[in-house]
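Thanks for the sequence, V.! I ran Putative Flp pilus-assembly TadE/G-like right away. Repeating your input here for the record:
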Amino acid sequence: MKVTANSQRGQIIILFALVAVGLLAFGGLAIDSAMVYSDRRFDQSTADAAALAGAGAAGNVMQTRDIYSFKDFDCSDFDVAGAKMNAVKHEAIDAAINRAAQNSITIDNNLSDQHGVEVYCRDLGEEFYEKYIEVKVQVTTNTQTSFSQLVSSAPLVNTVTSVARVYPPTTTGFGNAIVSLDDTPCASYSGGGIDFQGSIDVTIDGGGVFSSSCISGGGHVNVGVDDPGFTYMDTFDIAGGGVMNPLPATKSQEELPAINIADPADKCGSGPYVSQTGSGTIGPGNYSRIKVGNSESLILQPGLYCMKGDFEISGSANITGHNVTIYLQKYGSNRYSNFSVTGTGTVILEAPPDFEDYTVVANEIQGVLIRSADNNTAGVITLEGGGAGLFEGTIYGPNNLIKVGGTSSTNTIQYNTELIGKKVSVSGNTTINLNYDDYDFSIRESWLTLVR
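Predicted structure:
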């Protein structure tokens, strides 16, 4: 008996139709998803660019208007018309709006509709990373889809957010008047750290002390600092009747960013290195030695003094140099330039300013008084005179011991300096006043980051 299947005829057409609808749906969803993803990526790029543009503008205004984290960064003036900080806010808003417009997206100056820009001032403490301007941009757009219209006629909405943060310019030491860079534990002979010894009174006005390793003290030292106080990464130890105010605080995570001042070796030229001893007036250039002793007077004209040999000031010598930078180099397999001030003379040495308009005339480095070469790993910078005078500017010896102090109760030297070295030793029987609340140092420009 023959059996037929006429009732099953045409089923393949139904199956094909169902599969075709499914394929069409998946294809439509893929196209719609691609459109949404493309629009969202474009919106995010626009928001990122606008936030970074706003942060960049804020940084530029802070630099040009002398707004620095350790002195003039004041969030209380952020909404005060005519104030420096208010100018930072509005320049950031305008820059963000203009940058978004370049991508054909119009935003305003509020986020109530999740489509605009707002700028915030954050002052969370005295550390360098606790003061910043934050620029938040949100972009909201609609994507007109194809297949999704079969489900809903409403467009798909994209909302993206970008947040950029800009930190104000600050000094090389990030508000610290004394910085030790070497993180080798202080128990090691070659370690870094900051050490206060003797019957010495040290007052740091406007800055703190930071050690990548230890802070130690002995004798009857009395050291007082301003914000951000004493900070160390390894150990703290004070013996005898020493006092440090406020008490040092350990930091296990928040280290300083990399500190670096450009090495000016290429600015010294190929000319001969000459020796200068005794009185006179000299100009910038290459020197194998500069030595000034008892009753001798020396004037340094503005510029860069490249040393392959020692710079010595001793006895009752008098020396004056305005707008100068002294560069200490290595000059042999085991020969390293040193800088030393001892004796009772008058020493006035000032770096060219970095916080104001200044025209460099002879390769001097703005804000830098002494810069030791990176390969000068054994030179010593000694400021131990008992006379009078002024040191002004950054003293930077990344691989050097910096010694400060003296034994004279009549010491009237003013230190408008930041001391940045491998190790810093402050000792003697004298009084040292270090003023960090002035525009005398090397500047780290404002820097920004995209945080969201």
